[in-house]
Batch of 2 targets.
Target 1
Amino acid sequence: MISPEDLIALVRNYNPRTNADRIADAYAFGEQMHDGQFRHSGEPYFTHPVAVAAILTEQRLDDATIITALLHDTIEDTKASYDEISTRFGDEVAMLVDGVTKLTNLQLSSRETKQAENFRKLFMAMSKDLRVILVKLADRLHNMRTIKAMRPDKQAQKARETMDIYAPLAGRMGMQWMREELEDLAFRVLNPEGRQSIIRRFVTLQRETGDVIHRITGDMRAELEKTGIEAEVFGRAKKPYSIWRKMQEKDQGFSRLSDIYGFRIITASEEDCYRALGAIHQRWRAVPGRFKDYISQPKSNGYRSIHATVSGRDGKRVEVQIRTRQMHDVAETGVAAHWSYRDGVRSENPFAVDPAKWIASLTEQFDAEEDHDEFLEAVKLEMYSDQVFCFTPKGDVIKLPKGATPIDYAYAIHTRIGHACVGAKVDAIRVPLWTRLRNGQSVEIITAEGQTPQVSWLDIATTGKARTAIRRALREADRARFVKLGHELARSAFEHVGRKATDKALETAARALRVSTVDELLARLGAAVLTAHDVVQAVYPELAADDSDEVPPRRAVIGLEPGQSFERAPCCQPLPGERIIGITYRGRGVVVHAADCDALGEVEDQPERWVDLHWHSGTHPAVYGVTLELTIGNDAGVLGRICTLIGEKKANISDLEFVDRKPDFYRLMINVELRDVEQLHSLMLMLEAESDVAAVARFRDLPESRPKLG
C-alpha cells in the first residue's frame, strides 16, 4: 500500500502548494474508519481508496478530489457520517463523497428499464460536480485491475457494466487511455480466449517482422529532424479489444487488418503540427478518407489532434496523431483538464472545456424524455458517437455524430427548424433526408409552414436530440388526434344508450375511472386504451349492461364529419373489430380500408386525405361481406357439408364461384356476410378443422387487379 508520504509526493510533483497536512489527515481518518475491513483478495480494504487517489494524481487533480478518493467509501461502508466529514474536511469534500456514495448505490447492471432510470440519476449526479464521476471512474478502474479476486458471476456482471457504461463514458469525457484500459480489462473477463488469440498473433507478428514500432518511430523522428521540427514521437500497438472490435466491424481476420499500430507526434506549436503532417505525407502515402483535423474542428470535450492514416511500401497502414503539448494534456485527461494543476496553480490550458457547459450540451436533449428506455437509447447514441463537422450557408460549424442525416442537422440548429424540415441541399444539391452527411459538407435545410415531424423520421434520425424532439412532437400530435377521436367515440356511445356525452358526464366518468382530466379520458378512449363501453358503464352502469341493440350500418363507423358518407373498400373488405383507416374522395365520401391494406401505400404521400376511424363498439348485424378462398376435396356431398357448416355459424352465403376444377379438388370463392372479425376467425377455424377442406384463406384483391386510388 502507498504510504501517506508517497501519496503526498505524487501530488507535489504537479502541485507543490498542496495542503500536505490535510491529505495526511484524510489518509489517517480513512485508514482508521476502514480498520478491520478486508477486500476479497485478503488485503486491507483501505488499499483500495489509496490506489484510487493515486490514479487521480496521474490526472493532476486538485486536493479536494484526492481527499474525496481517500474517503469515498467511508459514508457507505463505515460509521463515518456526512456531518463528520463536512466538519473535518469542509462542505466541498462532503458533497463530493456523498455524490460518489450515491453513484455507488446505483445498480447500473440491473434490467433495462431500471438501468435507464439509474443512468438518468447518474447524469444528474454528474451535472452537480463532474469530479464525482472522475472519482467513480478511477474507483471502477482499480476494481477492474483487481477483479480476479471476485466470484466469476460477479466478474462478468462488473465487466459487462464497465463495457456498456463506464468505458464509453470515459471516452466521451476525453480520457481515451482510461476507456481503452477499461475495455481491455472487461474484454479479459468477457472473452479471455479471444483476447489471448489476439496477443498470440501479436507475438507471432513481432517474431516475423521484428520491432516495427521502434523502426517506424526512428524513421518518423528522422523525417521531422530533416525539416527542423522539434517533436517527441511515441509508438504503440493498439489494445487487444480495439483490434478485436475492428475485426468484428470489418469482418476481417487479424492478418488482413492493417492499422494495428498507432503513433503520436507531440510538437511545440500548432503551426508545427501542420508542418509535421507535411513531413509525414512526403515520406508515406496518405490513405484516402482517413484524415481528420480535430485541431481546426475540436470535439465537444476539448479534444484536438490531427489524425492521419498512412501506408508504407509493404502496404501496412499506421495511424498517426499529431498535437501540441497542451492539446496532449487535454487528450489524456479530457474534461478533467479543467481541474488539472501544474506547478501549484490551476493549469491555464486554453483547450480545456468548462465541465458545466459540456454536461449541459450532453444532457439538454434528454430532459424531455419521459420513457426510460428512450432515454437510455438517446444517451447511448450520444456516448458511442464519433463526429463529423458540417457547415451552415453562413459558414458556422455544426458538430454531428458519424452517420448523421439532414434531419439531425436541422434539429442541431433548432427544434423549430427540425419540425418544419421538408428537404435539404448538400453542397447546393437537393438530397433525400436519409442522406448520410460527411465531413466538410455545406448543408442548407428547406422548411415549410405547416410541416410536422413524420413517424418515418425516427428511422432516419441518429442523434438523441433529434429522436427525442421527434418523439415528443409525435406524442403531442397523437394526443390531439386521439382526444378528437375519443370525443366522437364517447358521443356515439352515449347516444346509443339514449344519453348525451355532456362535460359533466365525462367528468363523472373520468373520476370513476381514476383518470386525471377529461382530455386524458378522451385521449385514452381514442387510443383504444379504454373502450366506449367502459366510459358509458362508469356513468350509467344499468344502461351499459343492457347494450344489446344492434348498431345500424349507417352508424357503424365513428370519426366521420357530420353528413359524410362511407363505403367499405372492396380490396380488403374490412370488418367491425379490425383497425381501419378512411381515405377521402371528392364526390364519393370516405372509403374505409383495413389498416394493413396494401392499397394505402398508393396514397401514403397524401396524409391530408387520411381519416382516423373506429368501428362502433356495439353489436353489428351480419351484413358485411367477406370473400373466402377454399380448396375442397372433389367428393359427393362435400360442398353441401361446407355450406351447412357456414350456416351453423350464423353466416349467410351471398355468392359462390368456382375458379378451378381438378379431378381431385375444387377451388372456389365464397362470399359470406358476417357481423365482425371475431365471427370470421371462428368460421375459418371451423373450416380448417374440416377434413375435406385442404386450404382456407381470406381473399384480398391484389394491387394490380384493381383500379388505382386516384
Target 2
Amino acid sequence: MNIQKYMKPVFGSIFVLVGLVACTNLEIEETDSIITKATGGGFQPVANPASSLSDLYNKVGGDFATQETMYAMSEVTTDELLIPTRGTDWGDNGIWRQLHTHTWTPAHLFIKNAWNNLNQNVFRASEIIESNPDAAVLAEAKFLRAFNMFFLVDFFGSVPFREVDEGPEVNPRVLTRSEAFSLVESDLLAALPGLPDGSPGTANTGTATKAAANFLLAKMYLNAHIYNGGTVDNANMQKVIDAVDAIAAQGFGIETGYFQIFESSDDNETIFYLKSDIGARIWNSMHYNMNSPDNTGGGWNGFSTLAEFYDSFEGAPNSNYVGDGQEERRGWVPDASNANNINLGLGYGFLINQQYNEDGTKLKNRQGGDLILTKELTSLVGNGEAAGMRILKYHPNDGGEINSFRKHQILFRYSDAHLMKAEAMMRLGGDATAMVNELRQARTNTPDLPSVTEDVLLAERGRELYIEFWRRNDLVRFDKFTAPWNLKEVSGDPNLNLFPIPETALLSNPNLVQNPGY
C-alpha cells in the first residue's frame, strides 16, 4: 500500500479538528481583529511600500489558494459543490456539511478565518497607502484595499475599519454596508488613473490594472441594490455597461477553447488572475487512485457536484464520454477507446462513470473494483469512496506540460464581464438574448437559446463560471441562495444571505453588532 495516497484527507481532518478546538478559545488575539503596528506613539510608515505591496499580493493569493475560507464560502455553500462524508473521510465534525446545508454558526472556523484574513489585508493596504508610496504603488494598494473590502461587504455586510494611527487599545469603528460600499467605490475610482491599462494576452494581468478596477466596479454596481438596499437603480446598471465597455475597449474579449482558458498561458479572456497555487482546485476532487503525476500523495477525494447542476448542461443525462452530445463547457471523460496516452487519462469538466488510466485500462477503487463515479448522492454521510461526480476545470496537464501547482488562478475574466453587461441590459428592460448567445456561439456544441429570462441568465452564469468563486454572489443577487437543492432543504431565511460576524470579532470589538438571525 502506498501510504501517502491516503494521508491527505486524514491530515485535512486533523487540521480542521485542531482549528475547531482553537475556535472555542475566546481569548482575544491580534488576529481576531485588524493587525496594527500603531501604538500610543502613532503610525510608523512601512519601510518599503513596493515590497509590502508585493507581500500583500502574495498574501491575497494564498487566501484564495486554499479549499477553505474564500473558496468554501463562495462555492460549497451553493448548488455547485458539496463535500459528502465518505466513510470517515471529510467528516471533520460536520464543518463541510454545515456549509452545504446552511447551518453554520458564528463559531465556524472557515468564516472566522476569512473574516480575519480580509480585515488584515484591508489594514495592510491602508498601511501602504499612508506610507507616501509612489503613484503606481498607491493605485495598486487602493485596488487591493477595495478588492478585500468588497468581499467583506459581500460576505458580512458591515466592516470594521481601523485607522493606521490607532493602536490596539482603540476599538475600530464599524462601517455600515453602504458606507463600506462607498469606500470601495472611491478607492477604485481614485486608483483608476494611476493603474496601467491592462493588456490582454500579457502577464500584467496578474496585478491591478484599469481593466481589473473596471471589472470590480461592474461587480459593485451590479450588486448595489443588494449592498445598499432598495431596488435596482438604472443609473447603476448603466455604470455596469460603461465599465464593461471600457474593458472591451482595451482589447479583452471572449476566448474560444473553453478549458484552455484555465491554462497558465496568456489569452484575451483573462482580466485578473491571482498568483495562487491551484493544486487545491485539482486534487480536492480527484479520487485517490486517479492519475496524479506530480502529486505523490494522490487525489484527496473530497469535492463533488450535484446531479441537478450537471443536468443544467446540454448532453446525455447519465454519461459524459466523448460524443455524448454534450456542450463544450460540460467537458468530457476519456473512455477505453480514446484514453490511451491522451490527457493523462483524465477528462475535463464533469467526471462521471468509469474512469480510465492513461494507458486505456480501467481505474480501480481501493477495494479493487472498477472506479465508477456515481451521478447521484443520496446522503451527506455514509457514502462510498466513489460517490458523486467530480469537477476538473484546472487540469494538471497544462498545455501539454505537467504543471499542477502553477500559480495562475483566474478570478476576473471577460466572459463574466460580458454576462454582467447582458444582465444590466436586461434589468434596464432590454433583451439579453443576443449577448448570451454571442457567448454560447464561442463554445462548441452549445446551441442558441430562444430567449433569456432571469432564471435562464442565472443558469448560464453557472454553466460558464462554475467553481470560479462567483456562484454564491450570483445566487444572492437573483434571490436563490436560500432556495432548496439536493440535500439542502429550503430555508427561506433572508438572514442567511449574510454570514455571521465571528464570535471572537464581537468580543474583541464592542462596536460590532451581530448580523440578524444569528
